[in-house]
Specification:
single chain, alpha+beta, 5-stranded mixed β-sheet, 7 strands, 28% strand
Length: 171
């Protein structure tokens, strides 16, 4: 299994997988408006101070994660998927081990969770997540990145995750 940066050749597979996810939710894949970020990943993620990762196993795409600039201080995870057969293999942690340091290197202070599914449960139980309390960084994060995590739901019932460095929260 390999985690790597996505490229133009991955787009058709990503769109196909996402289309299947939409169908399961009774929606249609709409590359002209609602899901247009998947039409040109290079421009919409890399060209927007973001990153898009894929997970492959024996040449087959088994997951992806995309995060891009939302504001001057925030990056948003807009796409996150792991094939059911490969869940619980630590792929979510591997994605986050790339996304969080990337966000820090780009001087973002916050990571918002803006995807169809619930966020991965990385060191925080569902009950803890709903209370919006602050927790120590789980083991999947680089120890040099002292972070605080808060899960909340917005008005559309979507989760978001705020991550702030220990230095920025002390200011």
């Amino acid at each position: 299994m390999q985690i790597r940066v996505a490229n133009r050749q991955d787009e058709k597979n990503i769109q196909s997988i996402f289309g299947d996810l939409c169908s399961k939710k009774g929606e249609e894949l709409d590359l002209s408006s609602k899901h247009k970020d998947l039409r040109n990943i290079e421009a919409n993620y890399f060209g927007n101070e973001g990153i898009f990762l894929v997970a492959e196993d024996d040449g087959k795409l088994i997951g992806f994660a995309g995060a891009k600039k939302e504001s001057d201080t925030a990056i948003s995870v807009d796409r996150f998927y792991i094939d059911d057969a490969h869940k619980r293999n630590g792929i979510d942690k591997q994605f986050m081990q790339v996304i969080v340091p990337f966000a820090k290197r780009m001087y973002f202070e916050r990571l918002n969770w803006n995807v169809m599914e619930e966020p991965p449960k990385i060191g925080v139980s569902a009950n803890q997540a709903q209370t919006s309390q602050t927790y120590s960084a789980p083991s999947c994060f680089n120890k040099a990145l002292l972070v605080q995590m808060r899960f909340k739901k917005d008005e559309n019932n979507r989760y978001w995750l705020a991550i702030e460095s220990a230095n920025s929260s002390a200011n």
